[in-house]
Amino acid sequence: MLKLSSRLLNCSCPVVRSFKGTLVKPSAPLYHRNISYSDVTMSSKSRMAKRIEGGGNNVWVEFGRLTAEHNALNLGQGFPNFSPPEYVKDSLCQAVKSDNVLLNQYTRSYGHPRLVNALAKTFSPLHDREIDAMEEIMVSIGAYESLFCSMQGLVNPGDEVIIIEPFFDCYEPMVKVAGGTPVFIPLRPTKSEGVVTSDDWKLDPAELASKFSDKTKAIIVNTPHNPTGKIFTRDELTMIADLCKKHDVVVISDEVYEWLVYKGHQHTRIATLPDMWERTVTIGSAGKTFSVTGWKLGWSIGPKDLIHALRTVHQNCTYTCPTPIQEAVAIGFERETPLIGKPECYFNELPAELEPKRKKMAKFLSEVGMVPTIPEGGYFMMADYSKLNVQMDEKSDEPKDFQFVKWLTKNKKLSAIPPSAFYSAEHKHLASNFIRFCFIKTDETLEKAEKIIKDWKATLA
Hints:
Structural class: alpha/beta
Strand order of the largest sheet: 4-13-12-11-10-5-6
Radius of gyration: 23 Å
Largest sheet: 7 strands, mixed
Oligomer: single chain
Number of helices: 14
Helix content: 25-40%
Strand content: 5-15%
Number of strands: 17
């Protein structure tokens, strides 16, 4: 039987709760207290909590700063540098300026009524069931918060959570902060020559089965996958689903790139497989859906009992999400849902717009001697740079891919992300020859990147 985290038992109202389960009243804000500088710097009580120790390093901060310092072209972080649809922006402006004064006030904690109804209308047919807008959906501050609420709401201390590598870097610390134990299994590239696609990155069935035990509480599945672009096939998802049913495991299905699927491929929702709705939380993102990553709005969809666990964390954490943004996203879904499957639907227009960008990037990376992995979905491209004659410090403790990205940023003014940041310590070596680029950029940006690559190639001749 699937149970919510023991932290949440008997917790149904917005209160402050310590991690030992004792209900406490919020103390006065720190800035109201008379604490001297020496008290803060010397007292052991002012140190960060042990559960978050070691989580201070952040690849986005480090390489974002490096990119700015060297004025490099940014193909690292995953966000568009072009405008979202005009009607999406107009919808937000209209919501803010509306005569309905409540659109600028708190809305329903678990999701603005107009938005959850729009989400239910969109995703019910895609899940082959009628989704209850008021009980089976929770709106969150980005998919990030949905992931956080999933871990805090479902994982107990000592529970194991299986994470597929490479992984979005917040998965591991979120599991640890919840008291869980991450258990890692890598996707392994099965080709290194010729045309390599994200389908060539595979899970080993026997290795995957070995990761499940009576301690396993959940597995995080990300499809379409960041950073490889892999779209897990129905057979691959069935393999995962069968193990989850055998061991009574919850699936946290991160599907934020669900609409970014390229021709010849199809996204399968694991919650639609037999007997999987009851044990799956599916997470989506308005930022990825409408190219508005700065809006930070996401959602979780699943059975009432699992969503209740997430809601209990949410109502004691952020409580609610910005009303006008939810209103604007609702309008976006109301406009696009009737067009799903048609070329004029933005959910189809965006991947069609990205396909030539994907092709361009693969071409210029290949020309300099890298071996790109052609993604089936998403907007990232992994590339093997091992054939390039770039000297690394073999004696350094820093991973080779970190060294290479720093060299590329400083010397060629082109930034990317080192993917070993998305692996556990024991598997970082698997990413040592790879680099991750983002291609959801304007043609002008990609042309600048192409020129950098061609100029570099000329020096190699």
